[in-house]
Queue: 3 jobs
Job 1
Amino acid sequence: MTTPFFDFPEGHRPRRGQLMASGIILVLFGLGFGLLSVLYLVMMPTLMGSAMSASPPPAGPGMPTPASMASLSKFMVLAGVVFGVLSVVLLATGGGSMFLKRWSRPLSLFIAVVWLLSGLNTLVMNLLTSANMRKMMAEEFEKAAAAGGGAGSPAGMPGPEAFFGIMMVITLASTFIFGVILPAVVLWLNWHRDVKVTLDFCDPKPRWTDRCPAPVLGIALAAAFMALCAPTMVMMPTFPLFGKMVGPPVSHLFIGGAFVVLAAIAWGAYRCHPAAWAGALVVVITFGASWVVSSQDLDLWREVYASMGFDEVMIEQSMKSLETFLSPGVMWTSVVLYLGPTLAFLFWSRRFFGRPAEAA
């Protein structure tokens, strides 16, 4: 039962409707991620296993091999676990917002900021890679036409230019709506000072989110989420690290160390310890530097695909798309778009470490 609003603090207006709207958006997306988690963890591996056991897979260049199918299954499990964690977080936060729990606002603001930043970056990446994607699609249409005797597109079907235009409109529109507009709405719904006053009024008991300032809590939550996802990386046979391919047991030791470090940063940030801020800065710079160095060597990524059981034809097909996203212009733009705001936020939030919780 919530507290009546008849004695609401003077000079403020209750924002229960905004909290309800924010909660509904988060719950709907939480349900969506939950369905994706079930799809990737249960349905897709089951269907793939049934298809592989029912009949031998077709052999030949460019066709999936048992090793590549096994690697794909592991990636599905990895995605399913991440989607499951996101689903739980979104459902809990949305429910807390609808039931006027004071801990829901800091979580909603954190989710909205990360969501909005990811959506804006995805939108920019789609625009930057559109020219290369258009070229690749035209080449695929030409190959299909040559294989079909040069007949071109069937009657009534759009050509490569029209098809690409339709695809880009759908991609950009969906990214803008679901990756930019909706997180911006959630951010706006929770931003007003009266939203915090409403939650403090309806849920006056101090909660765990009051232990540290909101910016520091965001760092703790980000580190905790990364720590939870780190163990799932053991399902990858190999991965690049500072331009070198690493596999078991080195990769497992690195993943274990990453989990410990990230968990320590999460707990230290929650306690507002200055060492946690320094640790977060080192982690961001280290992972960013590793990504930049590893992205320069395309042969390294060929090794990654080879370790996943891809044959030469499949590797070449995958490399065409990867070369688009790892081109110098796109790669450095992604570095600036992701690392720039992250580092700026870290340096701005330094002032809150070593302090007790305060209004934010």
Job 2
Amino acid sequence: MSESLIDADIRQARTLPSRFYTEPEQFNRLKSVFSGWQFAAHSSELDAHTIQPLEHIEAINGESMILVQGDETRCMSNVCTHRGMRLALEPCTKKSLQCRYHGRTFNLDGSFRHMAEFEQVYNFPDEGDDLPQFPLKQWMGMFFTAQGEAMDLPWDMLEERLGFLNPESFTHDETRDRDHSVDANWLLYVDNFLEGFHIPYVHPELNQALDSSGYVTETFDGGVMQIGKAMKGDVKFELPTGHPDEGQDIAAYYLWLFPNMMFNFYPWGLSLNIVVPVSHNTCRVLYRGYVRDAELANEGAGSVLDTVEDQDQWVIEEVQRGMESSVYDRGRYSPTKEQGVHHFHRMLARFLTPQEP
């Protein structure tokens, strides 16, 4: 696949071919897009447990990582350098990391500390006995890490838009957490998230809370921002003076970061969706809730999340079945409603090795 497969001009472009949603080979080709930035945890989770195994990242890209808050916060390998045992099996708070297999012990900065029965080993320990480190980015109280080289994202621009919410003050609410298995390719979940076109048809309850005529989609390198306008009299953000959207009645900011992270900001707080690829026709969607003002949780666009999530899963499972059709391959984009989907497909194209269409 080359970038030219998705035309830069949305008015004449055709969507991603159906084989990318239905064939194991194409699913495997896309695995490389998950080596960049991934959400690790919110700072409030480290307040509860200073050692956080990042199980969701291991599910996404196969790398076992751990987030540790010691003299500073670090992301490092969660694999013992002796025989490969995973070190932290659940969130906890400890002064050191000890392998449950043979007792090798590490300091909270990842450096080797102690190992019994190794007195006769030459040149031991050396740097290879320390835990490898991964890059770590803190943004508005949220930590992100990467397995490989990560694209630079416009963190400052996004903070200018969302920083007034003070997300670092949010607290993790475990009662809002969900883990859903969906019988659809992960691409379909992202495609669906990146357009509000379907809201009147799929989400009647959400449609009553959002003014669809004022729905806005903005694209940028590395992501998409969608802005949902509130119906008259419904709950909305109190925007500060000088905010880029000052004077507008905004019910929700829907931020997507490539390739699989969705940050849904409502007046009550943040609902985070992380899509985990499983196979060419299945995925998992992890939902995490971080609360700013619980009293607002039953009002407006952010009050019907479980219903909306069920509706989204229903529709993309039906689309997955349609993608298997022998007579369907590609569609066209709406230039006014599907800019986000087009942007996503263009980004995918840049990350793939050229191949015959």
Job 3
Amino acid sequence: MKAKQVIQLVAVCIILAAYASTAIPRATAAEIRVGAGGQYRTISEAVKSAQPGDTILVGPGTYVENIVVDKPITVVSTNGASATVVKAADTSKDVLLLSGSDIAIQGFTITAGKMGVTFGHTSNCALTKCVVNGNVFGVYLAGATGNLVGNNNLNSNGFGVYLDGSSGNKLSGNTASYEKGGGGNASLSDGIYMFNSNANNVTNCELSNNDNFGVSLFNSKNNAFSNNTLSSNAQFGVRLRDGADNNNFSRNTLKANTENGVLIGDSQANTFYFNNFLAEKSNFYTQEGNNINSTRKLNYTYSGNVFSGFVGNYYSNYVGSDADRNGIGDTPFGGDKYPLVKPVENYGAVQSTPTPTVSSSAAASTASTISTNATAPTAGQRAPAVVPGFESVTAIFGLLFAAVIAVVLKRQVR
């Protein structure tokens, strides 16, 4: 064999050895501890050292820092939000900035920043069981898709949740109340504000007692709201403006909002049915071009009997009769052709219009695997990572192996 062929073979062996050094996955994800008795004193230091798939366990205390999480890891407190506070070191910045995908944050009080938590062009990330207050924007989603914001206390910010060009996210089980605005471009206040944001799913949220609105949608389409409470907001429970089209509201309760339950302006084809309007001064302010009842017949149960028909909403100030006892008033109420005679809780087993699909199931799955006692994600949830230090051993072994082959071949040449 010629010397040139020997050199080529050695080169191939070196390349294969280098590849092997980076291809061997870590057997298990690491747990990194922050706080008393931990490896790190700050969360930022722990994030910097973490590998994809790691879990950072944060002990109780107050951490004054602005944190950037830009890799697929889990950051969870060991003692819950009441005992673990992250306070902005620079109040003009985000307290937590998430960037990338497959990030899970759980169990912190997050305060004193311009944004409490920013989802910056993220996907498949989750924020759960946190208290986010005292920020201009509690949670800010910018160009974010398929994320979960679930079971958080987002009270007493400027805005609770602000979505900017963000679609396919799920907001579930949050409270976003007592929002007071932040001055300047954030002078108004909403529990949830959507701008150019489509196909988000909002469910089981409390959006009440805000200085302006429970929820506002601007040029945002195909969003679904169900089982939310919007009460005692200083202006409207729901505000739809400037191309907020084709949104669906079902099984929500709107109660005692100061001006109106719902304001619709320059928006079309929104649908409201099976909602409770209680003690509203005015239930709808303008409704032309929108649907104040279901757009198709539904199967529902009322007083133990099954019916099929169009359904509207319940209004506490409706006094119409129900001669055929099907739960639908005999006379229209405002723009509602099929007003309910009792609150929606009395109508069971409803086959309703499906809500828009939300691509956050993986984020929800990630969040569900994290408990307050800091259970790590299950195997396969995170990307494989290299065992620290092991890659160099593999590379050295590969080089030695290549050298042995070269010596043998050289002897054969002789």
